[in-house]
Structures
1.
Amino acid sequence: VCLGVGPNTTAINIPGTLAVTGATTFNTATSVVVAGTIANLLNNSAADAGVTGQVYTQYQTASTARYFLGIGASTADGAFALHNSIAGANAWSVSKTNVMTVTGNLVAAGTLAVTGALTVTPEANFTVTLTSVGNSIYARFANNIANNKVWRIGEGINAAGTFSIYNESDATYGLHVAGGATNVVTIPGTLAVTGAFGCNGATAQTAVT
């Protein structure tokens, strides 16, 4: 028996494969129960097998498309994406090279674990990168507008156990704090003070002429 349909049929059993050419519309909820590991297989039949083609599921209310989920949901770029049709933009996408892009705000209710460097771009020309190189870990602040600087602030930039502020643009240090029983602050350059300056303990000064 390939298909059984009667006046009192509430379920249709198809023992083999159901091949559908064209769009399929379900007016009620559907469920899929399988014995294997693949619940649903969507395949773009183009020659590239979906690498740069498009195959996705469309979600809508009434006749209004809301979201597209799948390969090339917004454009034929081979990325797997969740596309917000109302906003006209992807909520997120994963490229073929496994790079995930989130458009808009990312709200993490718990811990956001990132392996590797993390770069945040608040707006054009501004980036903040959390990264590590060798035995140092620091935040890198980059302002790409003309006449601005790139700064690093973190531990181990100058030496192990030292917290530093580093002017990457001019390759100069602004401040070092050497950790220990007492934190020793070193200012490699000039300290300019406007107003009163007070010291609660002994001070040491080395003048260079």
2.
Amino acid sequence: RAGLFTLFLLTLIIIGCSSQPTVRNYFILDYNPVPDNPQLILERPLPYRVQVPDTRISRIYDRSQFVFRYSPHRIEYSANDLWAVRLSSAIPDILTKHFVTYNTFAVTQRDFLIERPDFEVITFVNQIEMLRSDYYRAVHINMDMFLRRGHDLTYLVRHSFDREYEVFTDDVEIAVQNLSRIIKEETDLFIEKILYHFEVLSDENDN
């Protein structure tokens, strides 16, 4: 009996060692900032230095794991679907690229080591997740964007959105693609508000 028990244990060890390793998937928010509205691209940028610091992420979502929400009271952190770059860095990185591509400001950078920026783009992510239920799959993002004046920290332009988009799949890559697309579309709207604030655009441009 002792020999049979030892053989049984060895069999379990061999089976355990031969099992497939866990595969982890890494994702990043990114997009190509091609404008739907060519009026948003400036020939002459606004003559300001603008800093885009790290995004402030709600504590529930400020981690490397992708978040699935099953109900208002239940979420799950995915063990195998991970952000390759923390959201607090990935989001301001793509926003900086967006402003530079559109030539919105004379200088747009993530950091200023010596000079003080004229303005800051302040961002908050309140929710970013994939919604899952028996018959529904969607991505959801709730976010605030602000243009803040540097010397007195006055908020001049605000753009907030809370969007949900059905995806009809459990594929996290499709979810991330759609989250990236939503951020791109909403950043376009934010830039449009900025241009109206500085009177680069006016209601006459819409006619």
